[in-house]
Design goal:
- The complex is a heterotrimer of chains A (311), B (545) and C (313).
- Helix content of chain B is 32%, strand content 19%.
- By secondary structure, chain B is an alpha+beta fold.
- In chain B, α17 runs antiparallel to α18.
- Chain C is an all-alpha fold and 313 residues long.
- In chain C, 69% of the residues lie in helices and 0% in strands.
- Chain C contains 13 helices and no strands.
- Chain C is elongated and about 75 Å long.
- Classes of the chains: A mainly alpha (311), B alpha+beta (545), C mainly alpha (313).
- Chains A and C meet through α1, α5, α6, α8 and α10 of A and α1, α6, α7, α11 and α12 of C.
């Protein structure tokens, strides 16, 4: 078991190096001068100075090596656009906010998704079932920019006096409600479907019937078995859901003016801020890779068969 | 099964209800600290739009940085209502040596927030710092009119020697002397630009890159940088120690950074901000009739450039210019009350009356008949044209309209959108061969038409049309050496004629002159005003009522 | 290894148990009913799936037919007819350029759906190729390919789509397809590989090998048909993600070049005027939602239909 964990840990290093290399090469392929901020052309002398300052006049493999060295020492480099900030600064300031948004959205999804799934499973193929599933699915299917826009329009503008919710920002507790809902509706649909599915399956299992025949309390059966059966798929979904939250947050952050990394990522790509784009992509990749690793390990714990299959 | 129903439903719903009520309790309780709402305590909230890339005068390049800097620092001169320079930290200046030397006398009551007096040495240090190759300042080129500046900036090694040759000298604590390469009558106006602001040497040396953070920064202007949460807020408070502090009415300016135009408007309507710019053009018809809508002239031109190598026939270019109905575009798409352009230099520029050519090829509502007629005279017309623009809903819409207008001339237009940085790269100069026409805009750096007309010289880094006329270049050089305003404006007029007159080659098609549109709360409308360069003087803003 | 929710839902029907439901356990006469016919029957019993499939077909029909029969030129700019409300002549009204919205939504649908299917197919083809090679060959190649896949898994899909579009410069149908598929095929590869490995160890495949059947026969006769069901489900599962992905990219400004439009780019344009003309953002967004929902329900229905282990209540 320990060996398994260590092996998985070790594998993440070459994986990360590969991710960095791919991001690096891809970024370099993009044409466009990171120092040209507006329609005004940059004078050649200034261009030379800027390139020298950011080591862009070195051959690509030197830049790559410098960058990897930086990453190893925890220095993600300076921002090419935000001249007084380094990528580390940007990450430190913005990443916690995205994290908070994602975490709260996940919480929302679980808290509201599970009851919905329960309701649907208890009355399968009836109005309740279709209704609950439809409601859950709407959250997933309707593009989040529409949901966000509508939420702001109704709850912050039209009915602003009743609810007291601001149209944007991320500071007070009120300002966090709408963005969390907008981002959480998608995962909520996922959890609702998941709970519904596993509950239905569980309820039909032979051993549930047996246990009931023996007289065990229905509630205990339900909780114990449904939970256990939902655990594995929920854990395995953690990775892709994380991906969803990350990508979904770009739009939400932009619309709600939340100073997270999603909002800045888009700007950075347009602005050709190489170091920021690479730093953020590497960061996101690290998270996904680590999450996958944790999930793998959990999976290995939960289901010993997979341990052998993996090695 | 029945036993499940009530219990489980109940549990599920109950749980959800608890969380929801908690959420609303939290909503009810927490106080709002987002500021907002003018009128109280002389505080206003402004939506600055995007995060300023830097608040270092040497490194700042965008409008937000510029605006904030000009309010937290003390420039030597400011631009008056007629855009002539007025004394500010410099109480007077003299030109000598045929206009090639400018000497500023500074007031002696300028103070840094750390207590130090502001001296001419600060300016010498700061200007040389901005010109230095190590800082790699984008706006270093603004200083190239000063003797030795360009050499210092281009230096590769042994730069300190060149640094001393830059002709900016503090003759004493209150006197700053500058030597220029040629007489530049607009130089003093240029000094109003934020890149000519002084920085505090101690702060810069002590904090390095981080000297602009709110806790480190040392400023000398009417407002102080109270806080800067990146990509979120910038708050300014009144500097009580400023030399004219008793003239400043505002106590505090809170700043949000909402870059999405739609969200900005929503914020304004919800009362969370008192000023917001960057209005989406499609919202303007709805907002135009509201009392909060404000429109200002701007020193900028929106134009379509034409690659004269790919579209060589001058009659075709003229036809393309004539076919564009500018007024319709302005009324229906841009919707910002812009001015149809009849030349390149925008209205509001000093000397406009002498400069503007009122080009026969740029009628406000277009002239499709004449356009078609001209087009028929073209011997081998270019029937298929690719029009390039940078991704943006507004540019897209204008391109679509122009596409259909040129279609009537029998030209098949393919639209190509590119992402901004790539787009700029694509345009060169020289522009990529695939570029037949492209969209660009130009905003003035300083208030003189030279800023606009020098774009079309052969070597200009901003001339993406392949247009090159030596006689045009000569005229530009001549204008540079003409200190007398009236004579110079006349030369500018000739230059415009050279481009857009009866015999003009029309290498580019100006469409409209920019305006700035904002929403401003009525309580500050009267005193919150933008000048032609999109700058607001916060010392003049008062909250009425 | 991470098993995504899609993988979970796509567990292939185990051929060994195929007979149970049909009553072909020991002792009962063998009926000549194919898996597909039964699947179709079971699918049609699922009300939601049938409704979803009908809606999907209606949308497809709308997108294909309307532009052909429409009297309007979808690209013609007519400023006198801007923002007209819905009427008999213009069932959805007109947009900011005076163009008929009903026609444009149909055209946008063509592009969105085409991108959806193209990207989905690209994902599946790449995944299928990668996964079958890895699964079939096995051994160290399989190991190496899976490790590499692990690395790729770490690439967040939206950022890479953005970077890809930035690299190619302009956004048209094909670049969008590439961008959307470039970072999304990993799951498909994993699934296919898993499938192949499971099936390889299947009794009758082993039997076939023992008997001496050639590898392409095994592949063609046994492995691929069994994977087919899973793949069809996979298409309808990937489709929503791709369509929403395209909508997102359009929303942040990386949409199809005009005058072509996809539902995503139309929604983005519509958002600026949503206060006065909400129909311009509502219709394209709801179209996306409807398509996504029906694809989801179809996928569910297909899975239930093809997997005999799911008993009906």
């Amino acid at each position: 078991m320990v060996g398994f964990i260590i092996r998985r840990l070790l594998w993440t290093i070459p994986v990360l190096l590969l991710v960095i290399l791919m991001t690096f090469l891809m970024m370099r392929q993009i044409e466009g001068n990171p120092f040209r901020r507006s329609e005004r052309a940059v004078s050649p002398a200034v261009q030379r100075n800027l390139e020298r300052k950011f080591n862009l006049d070195e051959p690509w493999y030197v830049q790559y090596a410098l960058y990897v060295k930086g990453v190893a020492t925890g220095d993600l480099g300076p921002s090419l656009v935000l001249r007084n900030q380094s990528v580390n600064d940007i990450v430190k300031e913005h990443f916690p906010k995205s994290l908070e948004l994602g975490f709260l959205a996940m919480l929302f999804a679980i808290v509201f998704g599970i009851p919905l799934g329960v309701i649907a499973a208890l009355r399968p193929n009836t109005v309740f079932d279709y209704g609950a599933m439809f409601f859950a699915n709407v959250g997933f299917a309707v593009p989040s920019f529409l949901i966000a826009t509508l939420l702001i329009y109704f709850f912050a503008l039209q009915w602003g006096d009743i609810f007291g919710l601001p149209t944007s920002g991320w500071s007070t507790p009120q300002s966090k409600i709408l963005p969390v809902i907008a981002l959480g509706l998608g995962p909520m649909a996922y959890f609702a479907r998941l709970v519904r599915g596993t509950m239905l399956e569980t309820l039909q299992q032979d051993y549930v019937r047996t246990a009931r025949a023996k007289g065990l309390s229905s509630r205990r059966i339900l909780f114990v078995h449904v939970l256990k059966n939902s655990l594995t798929p929920a854990v395995t979904a953690a990775g892709p859901l994380l991906g969803f939250l990350i990508t979904g947050s770009f739009i939400i952050e932009f619309i709600f003016a939340i100073p997270g990394i999603g909002k800045y990522y888009i700007t950075a790509v347009s602005a050709r801020d190489y170091s920021v784009v690479m730093g953020l992509t590497v960061l996101l990749s690290v998270i996904v890779v680590l999450a996958n690793m944790v999930v793998d390990i959990l999976y290995g714990v939960l289901d010993p068969r997979t341990r052998e299959a993996r090695t | 099964m029945k036993r499940f129903r009530v219990r489980e439903l109940g549990l599920g719903v109950g749980f959800a209800a608890i969380v929801v009520s908690l959420a609303f309790v939290a909503a009810g309780c927490g106080g709002s600290d987002d500021g907002g709402g003018g009128g109280g305590d002389n505080t206003i909230t402004v939506n600055w739009g995007t995060e300023p890339p830097s608040l270092d005068p040497g490194l700042a390049t965008d409008t937000t940085s510029s605006n904030i800097l000009l309010n937290i620092m003390d420039p030597l001169v400011k631009l008056g209502d007629d855009l002539e320079p007025v004394p500010y930290l410099a109480e007077s200046w003299q030109e000598s040596d045929g206009g090639k030397t400018v000497t500023f006398q500074l007031r002696n009551d300028g103070r840094w927030t750390n207590g130090d007096p502001v001296t001419a040495n600060d300016f010498e240090y700061s200007w040389k710092r901005t010109i230095s190759p190590e800082l790699a300042a984008d706006y270093a080129y603004q200083f190239f009119g000063i003797v030795g500046a360009e050499e210092y900036n281009s230096c590769e090694s042994n730069c300190d020697a060149l640094r001393d040759k830059v002709a900016v000298k503090a003759l004493d604590a209150q006197t700053l002397q500058v030597k220029l390469t040629t007489p530049q009558p607009w130089f003093v106006q240029q000094v109003a630009h934020h890149s000519f602001l002084a920085v505090n040497q101690k702060a810069v040396e002590q904090f390095g890159d981080k000297w602009t953070e709110a806790k480190n920064i040392v400023t000398n202007g009417p407002f102080k940088l109270a806080s800067w949460q990146h990509d979120s807020r910038i708050d300014l408070t009144k500097n009580p120690d400023w030399r004219n502090a008793d003239e400043v009415s505002l106590q505090r300016v809170n700043g949000r950074m909402i870059s999405d135009g739609v969200t900005g408007v929503q914020s304004f309507e919800a009362g969370e901000v008192d000023v917001t710019a960057g209005l989406p053009p499609e919202e303007i018809p709805r907002l135009k009739d509201t009392p909060e809508y404000q429109r200002y002239d701007a020193l900028g031109t929106y134009y379509y450039g034409v690659n004269v190598k790919n579209v060589p026939d001058v009659n075709q270019r003229r036809a393309m210019a004539l076919a564009i109905d500018r007024q319709t575009i302005i009324d229906n798409i841009a919707q910002g009350d812009q001015e149809p352009a009849t030349g390149f230099t925008p209205a509001g520029m000093p000397g406009f009356d002498q400069i503007n050519p009122d080009s026969p090829w740029l009628p406000a509502s277009g002239d499709m008949d004449q356009a078609k007629q001209l087009m028929s005279q073209v011997s081998s017309p270019k029937k298929s044209i690719t029009l390039w623009y940078n991704e943006d809903p507004a540019h897209k819409q204008i391109a679509i309209a122009v596409q259909s207008m040129w279609k009537e001339l029998g030209i098949d237009v393919t639209l190509k959108a590119q992402e901004f940085a790539q787009f700029l790269e694509f345009l060169g100069p020289p522009p990529n061969n695939a570029v037949d026409a492209y969209r660009l805009g130009w905003i003035g750096d300083y208030v003189d038409a030279m800023n606009f007309l020098e774009l079309w010289t052969c070597e200009s880094g901003n001339n993406n049309t392949n247009f090159c006329d030596k006689s045009y270049d000569q005229l530009v050089a001549q204008a540079r050496n003409t200190p007398d305003n009236a004579k110079r404006y006349e030369l500018y007029g000739q230059l415009e004629q050279k481009l857009f007159g009866e015999d003009g080659p029309v290498p580019l098609i100006p469409i409209y002159w920019y305006t700035y549109t904002q929403l401003e709360k009525e309580s500050i409308q009267e005193t919150y005003n933008l000048n032609l360069l999109d700058q607001v003087d916060l010392t003049k803003v008062e909250v009425a009522g | 290894m991470v098993v995504s929710p899609q993988e979970q839902r796509m567990r292939a029907p185990d051929p060994a148990h195929a007979g149970d439901f049909l009553g072909t356990g020991a002792g009962t006469p063998i009926q000549q009913s194919s898996l597909w016919r039964d699947a179709k029957r079971r699918y049609l019993r699922n009300k939601a799936a049938v409704v979803a499939a009908s809606i999907f077909l209606i949308i497809l029909a709308y997108c294909i037919i309307v532009p052909i029969i429409s009297p309007y030129d979808p690209d013609e700019v007519n400023f006198d007819e801007r923002f007209l409300p819905p009427s008999l002549e213009h069932p959805f009204g007109t947009d900011g350029f005076g163009r008929d919205l009903f026609t444009r939504v149909a055209l946008g649908g063509r592009i969105s759906i085409a991108i959806g299917f193209a990207a989905t197919l690209a994902i599946l083809v790449i995944g299928l190729t990668y996964g079958s090679i890895s699964g079939f060959v096995g051994g160290w190649l399989d190991n190496a390919m899976m490790r590499f896949l692990d690395a790729l898994y770490g690439l967040p899909y939206l950022p890479f789509a953005i970077i890809t579009l930035a690299i190619v410069g302009t956004v048209n149908f094909w670049t969008m397809v590439i961008a959307l598929s470039i970072a999304s095929w990993f799951t498909a590869a994993r699934i296919v590989r898993g499938q192949i490995i499971t099936l390889k160890q299947n009794d009758y495949v082993r039997a076939a090998t023992a008997v001496g059947a050639r590898w392409f026969r095994i592949l063609g006769r046994h492995l691929v048909p069994n994977t087919l069901g899973v793949l069809i489900i996979a298409i309808f599962l990937e489709l929503p993600g791709v369509i929403l992905g395209e909508a997102f990219l359009s929303f942040i400004g990386l949409g199809i070049n005009p005058p072509d439009a996809s539902w995503g780019s139309m929604a983005q344009e519509g958002r600026s005027v949503y206060r006065t003309h909400p129909i311009l953002i509502l219709i394209p967004s709801l179209a996306i939602a409807t398509l996504v929902l029906s694809a989801n329900f179809i996928a569910d229905g297909l899975r239930d239909a093809l997997d005999p282990r799911t008993k009906e209540t």
